[in-house]
């Protein structure tokens, strides 16, 4: 990988062929692609009234286009050499339908429970948007996350007001089952907000292999104690995957899971090797790396 810990601390990059995902997040590629995708998604929807906040989607489309052009005026252009495609749109759409069906089914029994469940789904989506950006460490609440999404990822500001209002109502309803805003309209507004959030393309990091030994010598005879290896693959917002890269971690990781982009800069290791979990071939892992501590998105 040929990187120093100082470089990792400065950019927290994925070294090697999947560096494009992290670098693009820090600069402009993923932001530009995301902003390009939002207007076409929004154009399929008319105006929605979310919890009293007029969610003017035509205006949102206009502002998104303006933001996209502003990003494209930047000097940086990130190009990638994508090795394979992992289609995920169908799976994501099915998951969204399942979530909404569950909410509506629960609403037939208790609107209050359904609204609280909707809030949980929305919060999970907000976390999923933040997960690959390195911003999850400072996560406090969906409202605060809305500010981060607006400020750091340049998402349209109209998303923050509905998030604020919905979670304010959710908190009141949680303590007052007879709250006047516990209505069908409020629940539908939450479902609409959930659908918008789920329609936003996002990159992700997947665990390809995990919990294997690391060694400090090229012959793989000197075991590194108290640390294991994890191999990640980065996917861009279109689901296209790049090459894999190994990192050190002290956490057990689940193969196949999507994880947040988080690091412990207090732990780092020098040049290391590992045996490929499938072929047993000795492979170079990294020259210098901080500890990867990404969390499974299912546990957020």
Give a description of the structure.
It is a single chain. The chain is an alpha+beta fold and 300 residues long. It folds into two domains: 82-198; 203-299, no CATH class. Helices cover 42% and strands 22% of the residues. It has nine helices and eleven strands. It has helices at 5-11, 19-26, 29-42, 57-72, 89-107, 111-130, 142-151, 160-175, 184-198, and strands at residues 48-50, 53-55, 84-85, 204-215, 223-235, 240-249, 258-259, 263-269, 272-275, 282-286, 289-292. A five-stranded antiparallel beta sheet has the order 3-6-5-4-7. Strand 1 (48-50) and strand 2 (53-55) form a beta hairpin. Helix 3 (29-42) runs antiparallel to helix 4. The longest helix has 20 residues, at 111-130. It is elongated. The model is unreliable at 1-31, 38-61 and 74-91 (pLDDT under 50).
Spell out the key features of this protein.
single chain, 300 residues, alpha+beta, 2 domains, disordered N terminus
Please give a quick description of this structure.
With 300 residues, the chain is of the alpha+beta class.
How are the secondary structure elements laid out?
Blueprint: H1 5-11, H2 19-26, H3 29-42, E1 48-50, E2 53-55, H4 57-72, E3 84-85, H5 89-107, H6 111-130, H7 142-151, H8 160-175, H9 184-198, E4 204-215, E5 223-235, E6 240-249, E7 258-259, E8 263-269, E9 272-275, E10 282-286, E11 289-292
Antiparallel strand pairs: 1-2, 3-6, 4-5, 4-7, 5-6, 8-11, 9-10
Quantity of strands, as a count: 11
Q: How many strands, what sense, and barrel or not for the largest sheet?
A: 5 strands, antiparallel
- Seen as an oligomer or otherwise, the chain set is single chain
Structural class, judged by helices and strands?
A: alpha+beta
Task: Tell me the overall shape.
Answer: elongated
Helix run count: 9
Please tell me how large the radius of gyration is: 21 Å
Report helical residue fraction. 40-55%
What integer is the average pLDDT? 74
Q: Encode the helix/strand succession as letters.
A: HHHEEHEHHHHHEEEEEEEE
Spatial ordering of strands, largest sheet: 3-6-5-4-7
What share of residues are in beta strands? 15-25%
The residue ranges in which pLDDT falls below 50 over 5 or more consecutive positions are 1-31, 38-61, 74-91
Total domain units: 2
From the N-terminal CA to the C-terminal CA, the straight-line distance is: 30 Å
């Amino acid at each position: 990988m040929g990187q120093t810990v100082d470089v990792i601390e400065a950019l927290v990059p994925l070294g090697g062929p999947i560096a494009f995902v992290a670098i693009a997040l820090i600069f402009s590629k993923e932001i530009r692609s995301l902003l390009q995708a939002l207007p076409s998604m929004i154009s399929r929807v008319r105006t929605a009234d979310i919890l009293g906040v007029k969610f003017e989607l035509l205006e949102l489309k206009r502002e998104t286009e303006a933001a996209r052009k502003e990003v494209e005026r930047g000097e940086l252009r990130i190009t990638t050499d994508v090795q394979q495609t992992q289609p995920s749109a169908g799976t994501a759409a099915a998951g969204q339908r399942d979530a909404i069906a569950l909410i509506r089914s629960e609403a037939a029994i208790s609107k209050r429970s359904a609204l609280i469940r909707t809030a949980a789904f929305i919060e999970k989506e907000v976390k999923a948007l933040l997960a690959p950006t390195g911003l999850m460490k400072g996560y406090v609440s969906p409202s605060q996350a809305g500010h981060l999404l607006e400020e750091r990822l340049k998402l349209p500001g109209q998303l923050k007001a509905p998030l604020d209002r919905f979670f304010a109502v959710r908190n009141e309803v949680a303590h007052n089952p007879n709250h006047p805003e516990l209505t069908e309209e409020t629940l539908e507004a939450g479902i609409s907000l959930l659908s918008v959030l789920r329609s936003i393309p996002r990159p992700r990091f997947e665990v390809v292999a995990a919990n294997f030994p690391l060694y400090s010598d090229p012959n793989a005879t000197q075991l590194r104690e108290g640390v294991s290896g994890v191999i990640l693959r980065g996917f861009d917002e279109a689901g296209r995957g790049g090459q894999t890269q190994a990192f050190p971690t002290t956490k057990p990781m689940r193969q196949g899971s999507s994880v947040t982009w988080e690091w412990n800069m207090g732990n780092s290791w020098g040049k290391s090797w590992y045996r490929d979990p499938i072929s047993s071939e000795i492979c170079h892992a990294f020259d210098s790396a901080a500890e990867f501590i990404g969390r499974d998105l299912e546990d957020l």
